[in-house]
Amino acid sequence: MKKMIIASTSTIHGSGPLEYLLPTLSTFFKEVNTVLFIPYARPGGISYDEYTEKVSVPFAKINIKVKGIHEFENSKEAIQNAEAIFTGGGNTFELVNQLYKNDVLLTLKNTIKSGTPYLGTSAGSNICGITMMNTNDMPIVYPPSFTTMGLIPFNINAHYLDPIENSTHMGETRETRIKEYHVFNETSVLGLREGSWLEVNNNNIILQGELTARVFQQGKAPYEIESGVEVAI
Questions:
Q1: Which UniProt keywords are listed (predicted)?
Q2: What is the domain range of residue 74?
């Protein structure tokens, strides 16, 4: 039975890393002593050690230790034996590239499906969908495939931004880019705004947080889902 928190971001404006999620995580990880952290996305190119140390700070507030996957000799065994798993944000292309390079994507998927609690933020949320094709990141590396875990039946566009009224910026909006995606692809996309997350219990997916989320489907007008409502797309 899948137990997942799929969050748009780790940090919202005016608060520290994971601070807005800690009340939820203290319950979600209530029986967990140590979380296995996957730092492959490493934002800003920081080292795996630096990223793991940074993540350890908020988890210490709820009395949970953090161990980086790179600290283990056998990555597959580390995933299979984990009490819980957290994949952080950064560059989704590099995250997916490393998951394939280390041959752990399928292991991660199967471990989560078997019931190991999983937290994803940003890039770590993008990989929960069918593909990573709705990431906002630059393609700094070329992973073997864009196919990801498919633990939810749609793709995530993390950090979804609405058009800014009266903006003079002439570039594409996030909505425009997703419409471009749907010219060639059928998979639905959920635009997940900052401070929002999905709570997954097996096949039940509930939107949480204070904001709505925006649903995009090929050939249909986008629409909003209210917080507290099941996401069935």
A1: Dipeptidase, Hydrolase, Protease, Serine protease
A2: 3-225
